[in-house]
Every structure is written in C-alpha cells, then in structure tokens.
Specification:
Elements: H1 11-18, H2 30-39, H3 45-56, H4 60-66, E1 76-81, H5 91-96, E2 102-107, H6 114-117, H7 119-134
Parallel strand pairs: 1-2
Length: about 140
C-alpha cells in the first residue's frame, strides 16, 4: 500500500509546505493514534532537542566564552541497548566527559525504545542505582 508519493520532483516540498498529514498506516488503530496524540500533545520538538543540540553545538560557544563548566557533579546513569544498529557510535565516550560519576548499564534489548522494550529490566536497574546512591559509602 502506497501512503505517500514524493515523485515527481517537487512533490515532497509540496507535501511538507502544505502541512497536511499522512494517512494512518494499517497497523495503527484510531484508538492508538488518540493515545499517542494525548501523550505527545506538545509535539516532538522537546523530545528531539536531545538530537539537535549536540549536532548544532547549541550554547557551546557561549559556554566557552563565559567559562561555564559543562560537567555535572551528580551521578549520571545511562541505560542503553545492547550493541545493535540503534546504537549511536561513540555515545558513551562523548557523554562520559560531562560527568564525574558516569555509569552505563546495557539492557538486553537491541531496540531504540529501551524503556518500552525492557521495562522490567530498566526498573531493576533504576532500583539498584537509587539504592546504591542511598547507601552510605
């Protein structure tokens, strides 16, 4: 089933600038769409800031000029997927430089939405992390 046709040249630009939506794919029910719309009512802008900021170096020049230390002093836990096609190359190393206490836990899933795909495992990781923080050294 063909949902969108971006041919001939110019059709994609026309589609984007018209701000019209695409038809619902057959695997998403109207009820699922309503739930998704309720959850993401604010759109995806805030969610995608994580991807935009590093690639655009947002604030980096100002931070350097002002002498801002971009490191965080609180413990940081990164929960990520087992190595897969969804893994962002170099993510761990590039992130580690911004935290004094940086911990990584890989869960069994290989997908991008680890919190949905391995929710029980993630809850256990979070419990262990918080318990370790609460336990005096």
């Amino acid at each position: 089933m063909n949902f969108l046709n971006f041919y001939p040249p110019g059709a994609l630009k026309s589609f984007i600038t018209s701000d019209r939506g695409a038809p619902l794919p057959p695997y998403i029910s109207p009820a699922e769409k309503e739930t998704r719309n309720r959850i993401f009512a604010f759109r995806y802008r805030a969610l995608s800031n994580w991807y935009r900021a590093p690639s655009n170096n947002i604030g980096q020049d100002e931070d350097i000029q002002e002498g801002v230390d971009r490191r965080t002093r609180c413990p940081v836990l990164v929960i990520t997927e087992s190595p897969s096609i969804a893994t962002i190359p170099g993510f761990e190393n590039s992130t580690r430089q911004f935290a004094d206490d940086f911990r990584v836990k890989k869960v069994s899933t290989k997908g991008h939405w680890v919190q949905l795909e391995a929710n029980d495992e993630i809850n256990m990781v979070l419990e262990d992390f918080f318990e370790a923080l609460a336990t005096p050294n």
